[in-house]
């Protein structure tokens, strides 16, 4: 597999990395010069004189010729007017009195005039540009060899809404947005602890995407944090547009059907993960936050498990495991049993299945493949098509391909039931990306079932099990705590014990500081005698 | 990695190359629901297969009522397998025996011996040892031709007939292949198989038209019991003679005992007792050099019917009734024992009991158990408990006819 992979990569290995346009390079290290006009010209040429690139030149109250530079759509014009231009133009008497040296004027402007929150000194062209693209306004003056960047960023963005991919009946309804600072805020709102540490990176030479790593210092495994940062720093690409990019760059193994990193749109589930010692990787521009390291069983927990009563949560969790298994092996099981092991079917059922198959021209495997592919096509169509024609697809799908196919004698009714049940089961699993792996494996297992029967399915499942046992997610065995068996962690795998029982954090992730709560928190009727 | 890739390729290609081995689509299977074994005059096997016609069970899309639910055909061969092989000349589908629930043998086959039949039956990997074996006094293949009104599939109908014997009916003779094998392989025990009989006009019942009538021209019913010595047929027990067998072999589940409620003098006034649980213990003994078998029966059940004027509220009445029931059960048991003595066939498991109790002496007896068995004297003790008397206390004859 790697050999194949290298076919695509080898060609480019000789070309020097850092595939940035060569023209940008010399300027990057350059410092601002002292002359206002020169600086402005240089910035203008660097940005190709883009039309949204605004330069406003004026004379400060102290007589110094100044300029502010900003990008129109990224900034809040009201703030620029009120907090930058206005104070500078109307500068007080005290300021004008001290118009002696240039450094003084810089200090005065920065410390006494500007009424914006955060300001910064920049002296490199490079920083200048990135400040602009972050929505800052840069203030230049004749004779300064550095500039002030004032944060004035504001742009239109989606508000905090209910996440579309993981909705709950009970529990918080807010979801991450495309804005990383909103997302960090959502997490900080939940974990008000100085131990919630945040490490920033900018990844993507062209996109300069903000990536933040959040973890609970003292609980999360420091070596894993270090490893995450190491892998993030290795990334040297031009663009990061979604956390999916990061995921593929930092995951442990590429050639596996199973994801080794979870993504979540829910701040509550990410906060819970951080509290258990896992690490969150936030990427600007996407509401999907990466959570790692994980185990296979994390894919079957929904955040609602912890908000509903423990008994129903346990039931639902077991249901999800069953549904996952069904969505993976039901079609292959049907193929195997009806074509190899007819003796396993109860007589009456066998007769009725045989009756349905009368006149079906295709072998069971082909029949199943036909229906499965039809369903995959329908599903893909349903996801991509414009919302307005959604009902058309469902009519075509349900009526034409379901009933009509049976009545036309193309497929048997039992096969339609099998495929439909498989499809529904695949939606039970709360995490979309593990459902995808079941979706792909289904076809491989169907092929095995068609050629070797139940023996084929079993060998396929064994192969999968061996593969899964070998998988790691940032050093954590994928099948832990089942293999290796960690009894301490079992209380939140197949069953979800009541909250007062969860005394420790899962030891897999929280290597240190794993005591979560006091031991004897079981609710009991209070001893009224004593109170009296 | 390269090696892994090649390995994957080999495995993948061999999957296709295997040609899907012994795979059979459902619509290529001829599902056999019952098999019948006959022997012709030249001792050639005649095998008759009852194949389910799946189309006929298809509910709405036509087929349904217009087709016979099964087809029956026979093949002939010097051995059983030869006959099975010849079926391929006649049937477009591969015969599939795993769902065959019923094996019917003719009396001629039973007299010929079951050894060859059982050998081929358990040697095959498709056939099931849970199938029921029944004897037909005439030609076995005729039984498979009879259509049954309630079950679509006559084979299933027959097997339900036998498994339904446990509840409510009096005799339950175990007749699955594995039980048969189990009994035959014991040196002393004799197997017993129920007889299946066609009652009525068998010719007319083979057509679907017969099912359109409310009263079918012919029905399949269980009747006598065929007793074997080793693998060979020894003789018949009538239905009445067979009543005692399940009592002794401790196989009573739910059975009705009909008994006269006021002693011998008023035979016309009969009552019914429904046995719910029953336990039988066999106690072999030797007294004065003779074999003595004590059969200890304890039955519990309900009074379900009575034609006598009884004051059931009184415990004495119940005690009296219990005594009558005990008499009746004793009579049934004795009756069966006498009949089996005549056949010199131990279908009661006495041999086993003596074997366990007297392992040393058994070596001597076992050589000639057929002659030892009739010499056994049997002592039956029955204890009956009437647990409930149904929804009313006093018998209805008492309630209605105050004066007589």
Can you tell me the overall shape of chain A?
A: elongated
Residue runs with pLDDT of under 50 for 5 or more positions of chain A: 19-28
Strand content of chain B: 25-35%
Helix content of chain A: 40-55%
**Outline type of chain B:** globular
| Domain count of chain B | 2
> Number of helical runs of chain B?
15
Radius of gyration of chain A: 30 Å
Task: Please state the average pLDDT score of chain A.
Answer: 85
Instruction: Enumerate the spans of chain B where pLDDT stays under 50 for 5 or more consecutive residues.
Output: 60-64
- Main β-sheet, spatial strand arrangement of chain A: 1-2-4-5-3
The N- to C-terminal Cα distance of chain A equals 75 Å
Strand content of chain A: 5-15%
Count of helices of chain A?
19
How many E strands of chain B?
13
SS elements, strand count of chain A = 12
Biggest interface goes to: A-B, 31 and 32 residues
Rg from alpha-carbon coordinates of chain B: 26 Å
Describe this structure in words.
The complex is a heterodimer of chains A (532) and B (404). Chain A has 532 residues and is α+β, with helices and mostly antiparallel strands. Chain A has 3 domains: 24-151, no CATH class; 180-294, no CATH class; 310-477, no CATH class. Chain A contains 19 helices and 12 strands. A 5-stranded antiparallel β-sheet of chain A has the order 1-2-4-5-3, sandwiched between helices. In chain A, strands 6-7-9-10-8 form a 5-stranded antiparallel β-sheet, sandwiched between helices. Chain A has a two-stranded antiparallel ribbon with strand order 11-12. The model of chain A is unreliable at 19-28 (pLDDT under 50). With 404 residues, chain B is an alpha/beta fold. Chain B has 2 domains: 26-239, no CATH class; 243-404, GMP Synthetase, Chain A, domain 3 (2-Layer Sandwich), CATH 3.30.300. Chain B is built from 15 helices and 13 strands. In chain B, the strands form 3 sheets. In chain B, strands 1, 2, 3, 4, 5 and 6 form a 6-stranded mixed β-sheet that branches. Chain B has a 4-stranded mixed β-sheet with strand order 10-11-12-13, with helices on both faces. In chain B, helix 12 crosses helix 13 (359-366). The A-B interface holds A 1-4, 338-340, 342-343, 347-348, 350-360, 363-364, 447-448, 450-453, 456 and B 1-2, 4-5, 15-16, 18, 20-27, 29, 31, 33, 52, 54-58, 96, 98-99, 101, 126, 128, 153, 156. Chain A: The chain crosses the membrane at residues 279-297, 318-340, 360-378, 385-406, 412-436, 443-466. Chain A: One of its GO terms (biological process) is spore germination. Chain A: It comes from Paenibacillus prosopidis. Chain A: Belongs to the GerABKA family.
